């Protein structure tokens, strides 16, 4: 689970930089607080999904379910 949070945080940071936005600019455009953007980019494990979607929406993206290999999940591989 932790690696997915890291992937998300790296993805958000990359998108922000590709769009030449500072953290304060991203927060303002997404309608979230600067602290939230910082927590998101640092991979905080307890974030509100609606706020994450507010940020992702700026990049034409959204959170959603991703199919997983159930056998790997059950065997902790």
TrEMBL record:
It holds the Pfam family HTH_3. One of its GO terms (molecular function) is DNA binding. Gene3D superfamilies: lambda repressor-like DNA-binding domains. SUPFAM superfamilies: lambda repressor-like DNA-binding domains. InterPro entries: Cro/C1-type_HTH (IPR001387), Lambda_DNA-bd_dom_sf (IPR010982), Tscrpt_reg_HipB-like (IPR017507). It comes from the Bacteria. Transmembrane segments: none annotated. This is Transcriptional regulator. It comes from Flavobacterium piscinae.
């Amino acid at each position: 689970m932790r690696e997915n949070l890291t992937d998300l945080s790296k993805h958000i940071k990359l998108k922000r930089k590709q769009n030449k936005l500072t953290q304060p600019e991203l927060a303002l455009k997404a309608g979230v607080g600067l602290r939230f953007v910082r927590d998101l980019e640092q991979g905080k494990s307890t974030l509100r999904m609606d706020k994450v979607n507010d940020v992702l929406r700026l990049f034409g993206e959204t959170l959603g379910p991703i199919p997983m290999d159930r056998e790997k999940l059950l065997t902790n591989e």
